[in-house]
Each structure stands twice: as C-alpha cells, then as structure tokens.
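User: I've been trying to design a sequence by hand for this structure and keep getting stuck. Would you show me what you'd pick, starting by listing the structure so we're on the same page?

Assistant: Good idea, let's start from the same input. This is the structure you sent:
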C-alpha cells in the first residue's frame, strides 16, 4: 500500500509567515508530521483548524526542511501546473530584445521553483539544481523547460550537496564556452565549469550604470573577474581601465571579452593580486572605482567580519579617488542587509572628510526578482567625492 500523503503542521507563528507568502519553513517551525518523509516528497501543510494551508518540497536533512511551492486554495500539482508557472516566468522576461541574449529565466524560490535556477546564454539554457527535490522530477522539468524556453542546448549543473548527480549537456552537446550579447556587448560564459551558471548576469543593470559614468575617466575595477564592468566602461568612453583580480584565469577571461568587442578600444592594464592587500598598499589614483567582491558572509556568524571588510575595502577605494571621482560599491552578501551596507557606505563617505553626494542606489535586476527578504542579496551605491 502506498504511503499516505505527508502531512505537516506548523507552530502558529510559522503558519502566519506561510500564509503571508514566505516560501521557507525552518526546522524549529515544524510542529509535527504524520510520518517520516523522503527528500523531495510533496508535503501538505494544514493549519491549526485542519484546513489546507500550503504544499511544498520536503527535505528532512536540511535546516529548511520545507520549501513552499503553493499556498492558498488547494491545487493539483502536475505537469500542467509547472508548465503554467514556467510560462509565467518566460512572459515576465518579454522585454529583452536581440541585443541581450543572456538573462535569468527562472529565479528559484522567488518564482516558485525552490532550489532551481535557469539562465539563458544565447541558444544554451543552463539549469542549476540546489535541491534534491528535483532529482526524481528531472525528466518532467527538463521537458517543461525545453517546451517553454526552446533552447537548442541544455546544460544541467548541480550544487555541491548533489555531487552524485551527473552534470553536463543533456541531449545534444553544444559549446562549453558560449558567446552571448548583453546590451549589444559580447561576453563569454563558461556554461559547463564557470562560476554560478557561467557569468554574473545579475549585475547587468549596474554595468550599464557604470558605462554612463565612465566618459573621460581612469577606471579601476576591483574584483574584476571577467571584466564586465570594464568592457562597459570602455564603451562609455573611459580613458583607461585597470582590472584587479587574484585569479589569472579571470583576468584572461576579461582579456577575451575585450577581444570579443573590437569596436571598444581603451588602454587596459590587468593586475593579478589579492585585492584587499593591493588596495591597502598601492598609491594609484583613479576617477571611477568599482568594488564588487564575492560574498563576504555566507553565514550569519560571518556578518560582522564582512562589514569590517567592506568598510576597509571602500575606505581604501575612497582614498584612491581623485577629486570629483565616483565610487560604485556593490555587495552580494545576503546576510548583510541593504540598509546596513548603504549606511556603512554613507558613513565612510562622511568619515573621509571630503564633500560627497549620493548619485544612486540599486537592487535586483528585473530578471532576478527577490520574492522574500532572505532572497534580497544584491545592492549597490554610487557616491561622488570632491
């Protein structure tokens, strides 16, 4: 006889949170289950009056054992239901034209696909799985993604916790490095082995903002990775760009991205060094500095150290700015809230003793919608200093 449906009951505060639309239920919020559940099993949540509340993926070994996929009135969760949800994600991206062929198609938990993101790079769709819930559903979700997004090639990548699952092209094999367009510029994405899904698509809008600030300026790109900010700055009329990164591989990738855009001509220097140490020791001066480090707080207990590191990095950047220069500082640390990061940056501007004004702040791009507070990781600020 098949197991009965896995039924979950939550403590009152968690009920309220789920009813308000939050997709995560932490282990301490689970009051009871009717039986042990298997990873990836659909679990039905009932409220204290035994009414349907929500349905989600169950993962008993995770600190977030329940990830909600639907709340409200009961619905049948079948292929048609997932197909409609994928189409809704596609339709929200209808504003991208032919000059941008790289963007996020599905943004995980924020769009009702817990532990799954899908990014398009031209004719290649890269799907990254972070949850074991998708392992048994792979054939179904693959067919849905192919039907909705119509990629020529599809790559499956997995997080470390799913290391036993095969990675690579599913079906027809394409190029492991794909060239795509972003606002008319061309970039390479290492779709098989690159970081994330091959490129940092989430900074597209901020790269465009940097382009608008770059004319006639000497630009320093700190934690430059594959040089996205630098290529945009060059097209914006920068006098020079300096890429700073500890990875020789990243600097080489940046060089290739410049080669992909031969119409963009600029004096470029590549510096391979530890960015924190180099910024503390160098005596150079620039008109526009971008600081975009990797996440400095992957856990809540690392937050204090991250704030200290952001403060030191950007204080050094301010010291290297010529009068009238602009600092564009970004953070992708989810455990550092936007309000904290922006307050820190404004404080550092005041502490410099120089006249300053805030040009803009930014958050997530439209194709990376944060559906709940914990998903809000990206923030940036531009400050001009006299």
């Amino acid at each position: 006889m098949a197991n009965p449906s896995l039924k979950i009951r939550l403590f009152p505060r968690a009920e309220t949170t789920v009813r308000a639309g939050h997709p995560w239920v932490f282990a301490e919020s689970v009051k009871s289950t009717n039986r042990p559940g298997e990873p990836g099993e659909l679990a039905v949540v009932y409220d204290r009056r035994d009414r349907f509340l929500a349905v989600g993926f169950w993962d008993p070994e995770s600190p977030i054992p329940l990830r909600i996929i639907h709340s409200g009135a009961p619905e049948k969760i079948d292929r048609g239901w997932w197909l409609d949800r994928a189409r809704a994600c596609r339709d929200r991206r209808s504003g991208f034209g032919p000059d941008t062929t790289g963007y996020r198609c599905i943004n995980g938990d924020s769009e009702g696909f817990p532990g799954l993101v899908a990014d398009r790079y031209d004719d290649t769709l890269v799907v990254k799985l972070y949850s074991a819930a998708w392992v048994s559903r792979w054939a179904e979700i693959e067919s849905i993604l192919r039907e909705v997004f119509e990629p020529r090639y599809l790559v499956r990548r997995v997080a470390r916790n799913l290391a036993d699952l095969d990675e690579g092209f599913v079906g027809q094999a394409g190029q492991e490095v794909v060239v795509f367009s972003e606002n008319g510029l061309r970039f390479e994405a290492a779709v098989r082995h690159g970081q994330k899904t091959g490129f940092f698509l989430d900074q597209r809008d901020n790269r465009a903002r940097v382009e608008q600030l770059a004319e006639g300026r000497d630009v320093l790109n700190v934690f430059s990775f594959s040089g996205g900010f630098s290529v945009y700055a060059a097209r914006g009329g920068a006098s020079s760009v300096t890429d700073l990164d500890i990875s020789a591989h990243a600097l080489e990738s940046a060089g290739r991205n410049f080669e992909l855009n031969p119409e963009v001509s600029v004096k470029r220097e590549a510096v391979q060094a530890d960015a924190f140490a180099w910024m503390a020791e160098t005596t150079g001066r620039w008109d526009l500095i971008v600081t975009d480090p990797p996440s400095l707080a992957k856990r809540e207990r690392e937050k204090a150290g991250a704030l200290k590191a952001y403060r030191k990095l950007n204080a050094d950047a301010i010291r290297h700015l010529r009068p009238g220069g602009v600092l564009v500082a970004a953070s992708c640390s989810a455990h550092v809230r936007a309000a904290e990061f922006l307050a820190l940056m404004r404080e550092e501007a005041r502490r410099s003793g120089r006249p300053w004004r805030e040009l803009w702040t930014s958050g997530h791009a439209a194709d990376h919608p944060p559906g709940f507070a914990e998903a809000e990781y990206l923030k940036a600020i531009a400050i001009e200093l006299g």
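That's my pick for every position. To get oriented when you compare it with your attempt: The domain at 201-385 is CATH 3.40.50.150 (Rossmann fold). The CA atoms of residues 216 and 239 lie 5 Å apart.
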